[in-house]
């Protein structure tokens, strides 16, 4: 349901509230039921996910929405981010090329030598690299996080990890839109805020299941893994896709 996808996208902007597809599991940092139910770290690993998938909740406007994790929203978020990143990267490349030609023309006229324009062409490799970056990152990090938790016998389903990671990419989508502004400082700010905010979204959503079930070394290791990967992705966006001298 489109309305549900929009609600879940909006939740990434306010990660202190638990998204509906995790609300029954008691994993979120701010989950009100954790004190009485606690994180489900034993018993049937699939039971929690099955209960969430079969449950419904009523939103404020009276519309019933499914609490099961979805792949529709993450797929279209990643697809939009991929295409938008490639488009904006080429737009910035064109702006940089135009400014370079204007500067070269001015220098040529001032020094009395012929002006030779630098030709610009659309870079289709940007689209291919953006495609691999977005999809492989989301799938690989989701699988890695899920694999670690399954190895530690935590009752976390792969679809929950993939759904959470997919929606966390919405922050990078917003950053990509802001990066169309040809100002280096603003691009740095957008990419780093997206990296930190998306890390916070993942960490808060799985906080209690990690904090109460992993020892200190593993807990800190998972936090470092999530944060370093998201910050690395933010740096990749800034240094590769939006790295033009403007």
Structure, explained:
The protein has 246 residues and is mostly helical. Helix content is 67%, strand content 2%. It contains 10 helices and 2 strands; from the N terminus they run αααββααααααα. The chain has helices at 2-13, 34-37, 45-54, 72-111, 125-151, 158-168, 170-178, 184-205, 207-211, 216-241, and strands at 56-58, 64-66. The protein has a two-stranded antiparallel sheet with strand order 1-2. Strand 1 (56-58) and strand 2 form a beta hairpin. The longest helix is centred in the middle third of the chain and has 40 residues, at 72-111. The protein is elongated, with a radius of gyration of 22 Å. Mean pLDDT is 80; it is low at 32-55.
Summarize the structure.
This protein is mainly alpha-helical and 246 residues long.
User: Which residues form runs of ≥5 with pLDDT under 50?
Assistant: 32-55
Q: Distance between the terminal alpha carbons, to the nearest Å?
A: 41 Å
Count of β-strands: 2
Classify the secondary structure makeup into a structural class: mainly alpha
Share in helix: 55-70%
Major sheet strand order = 1-2
Throw out a few tags for this protein.
mainly alpha; 246 residues
What are the SSEs and their pairings?
Elements: H1 2-13, H2 34-37, H3 45-54, E1 56-58, E2 64-66, H4 72-111, H5 125-151, H6 158-168, H7 170-178, H8 184-205, H9 207-211, H10 216-241
Antiparallel strand pairs: 1-2
Helix pairs in contact: 4-5, 4-6, 4-7, 5-6, 5-10, 7-8, 8-10
